[in-house]
Amino acid sequence: MSEKYKVGILGATGMVGQRFISLLADHPWFEVVLVAASGRNKGKTYAEAVDGRWKMETPIPDRITNMVLEEVSDVETIAPQVDFVFCAVNMPKDVIRDIEEQYAKAETPVVSNNSAHRWTPDVPMVVPEINPDHYDVIKYQKERLGTTNGFVAVKPNCSIQSYTPALTAWLKFEPTEVIVSTYQAISGAGKNFAEWPEMNGNIIPYIAGEEAKSEKEPLQVWGHVDPATKSIVNKEGIKITSQCIRVPILYGHTATVFVNFKQNPAKEELVQALRDYQGFPQEAELPSAPKQFIQYLEDDDRPQVQKDVNFEHGMGVSIGRLREDSIFDWKFVGLSHNTLRGAAGGGVLSAEALVKKGYLKKKSEL
């Protein structure tokens, strides 16, 4: 790729925005040329805006340090400067929906980490290893928006990626009922322990909106594009119920899952299905794709956050403790990195898939 795509990051000062900046520092396809945040940070350098709030393990990339922040809502200024934007803003959902559509209508695609458009019928919500065919709905979204290049694509909630990949590998065995409990890291709320000291040694049995996402979003990911309605239609025949709990972990969402199947798979079949599972990112050898999407761990005490959260640079999913249950057919434990696979890393991988499938284009080539 001779010239990199020019990328803007909306919400660049928050935790997910910081993760985008960190991931894109040496990306072979994408170059961050613009950062934007709320109006109170407009005109500040990036380093000034995140002074005392930089949360990544690596320092701010040199070329970003003195970049001057734009205001997210200034679409007319930002759109002409970039080929597309990543969106990680922290605003009310109706405001986010409006801003993201403004960028799309300004012929600037949006790859969003936000939940605001996850239930817009013609917006694809994609895990690239699972449902890249959902990008096909973009043509209908463009018809609605009246655009030739602009659209919005989103990624699912971070916590569902701890268990949905395993269930996807097992769809051929026809799962019918799922009980899932997620144990979610504090970085999922955009915080660390310095900012949220009351989480030390604490568990909070409530995360606003998470249970509905955990129960509904997998069904959309497993759904299909319906040309008749020009929308995504959810998969039927699977019921999911969940509980979502905040735990004193910085990175890593763990899920405990119980599942019933129509068929009667043996453990060996289930484990082999996990290990064999590959998707479009692996086939296309996308830069951010894990070589192995799902690993199965045999040890009784795995997966563990400290040992497994960074599997495949945080882009892989770890499954363990698969065993028969006395009420359900099978039960297991899943783990994924919530700000890498579950957030910014998943967004970058989605953008790579959109490039490979021809949906993201350089404006200089249009």
Automatic annotation (TrEMBL):
GO terms for biological process: methionine biosynthetic process; threonine biosynthetic process. The active site is at residues 158, 253. Belongs to the aspartate-semialdehyde dehydrogenase family. Residues 6-138 form the Semialdehyde dehydrogenase NAD-binding domain. It comes from the Bacteria. The lineage of its organism: Bacteria, Bacillati, Bacillota, Bacilli, Lactobacillales. Pfam families: Semialdhyde_dh, Semialdhyde_dhC. GO terms for molecular function: aspartate-semialdehyde dehydrogenase activity; NAD binding; NADP binding; protein dimerization activity. This is Aspartate-semialdehyde dehydrogenase. Keywords: NADP, Oxidoreductase. InterPro entries: ASADH-related, Asp_semi-ald_DH_pep-lack, NAD(P)-bd_dom_sf, Semialdehyde_DH_NAD-bd, Semialdhyde_DH_dimer_dom.
